[in-house]
User: Fold this.
Amino acid sequence: MNRIAIVLLVCGLASNAGAAETAQDRGKRVVEEALKALGGDAYQHMQDRVESGRAYSFYRGQLSGLSVAKIYTKYQARPEPPVPGKIWVRERDAFGKQEEDNYIFRDGAAWEITFRGAEPLADQRIANFKDSMLRNILYILRQRMGEPGLTYYSLGSDFWENRPVEIVEITDADNQTVTVYFDRLNKLPVRQIFKRKNQEYKDFDTEVTLFAKYRDVGGGVQWPFDIRRDRNGEKIFEQYSETVEINKDLKDSLFELPPNVKMRPKAK
Assistant:
């Protein structure tokens, strides 16, 4: 058998194998390859994370704020199997050189903490935080794999910003969906899109997150150092990390309100 015939045979076998793979099978395979690329078992056993750098906020495409930022994240032990619609994570977002302005998200509640005291965040803001977390592919791969009702559906391959990508639609038991673009070369997630109901205007916002500049942050775990969020085609947030550390044994007290803090009325 000559070389050309061998190449044609191999291509034919690959084509037949691809044809036998369903969209669900392909979607699941792509997601599992992404988890492996992020660090596999080490990624799923990451206990906490500290991201240090700068954060920029935007309004109508224009810079509206910038700050030194430190994001503390602690994963909680999830039940087996995971409960659909529940989040198992605590987060503290600290801004300023002295970390003087903070936001704490934990156990279905959230507060803004400043020198004036602690102000509970509005219900809609808490709901948006929960929704964003549940549909964040990096959180899905850490905490939601194996969750009852979670399905994967491949939308095929394409090019995005001149890079080949695999596109997968992930849907949970509550019919909430996120569409994720995975780099075909390194298997890592680079873009995600979902729609959220706008309670004020009764239409839908399109939320896009971009992930870039992945680096090994310890034990083979990969994490993006650049994260950008857009809404309806306009940039609203960018985070540039200078350092990312994992498994720092963050204490629960870090995610609690300071003792004797003045409580302010709940935001509307």
In short: The CA atoms of residues 92 and 104 lie 5 Å apart.
